[in-house]
Specification:
Layout (H helix, E strand, L loop, with lengths): L23 H21 L4 H15 L5
């Protein structure tokens, strides 16, 4: 499956968003994951949120084998 980012043209009808094509279930789970990451960054009181976000992205890429 290929990930499709949000296009800003979100819809709530049906099983999938008409903007990005992702299922509403996938979108909800991703929102929860992002909220947890934001909560962690706030708990740690990071001043360099961009570095934190880039670090998370880099870790995901590395762990999934595309960071080489």
């Amino acid at each position: 499956m290929k990930f499709n980012p949000c296009t800003g043209k979100c819809t709530d009808e049906g099983a999938h968003c008409e903007g990005c094509g992702r299922s509403h279930e996938e979108i909800a789970e991703m929102k929860n994951l992002v909220s947890e990451l934001i909560g962690f960054a706030e708990k740690m009181d990071y001043e360099n949120v961009s570095d934190f976000a880039e670090g998370i992205a880099g870790t995901i890429k590395y762990k999934m084998g595309s960071g080489h």
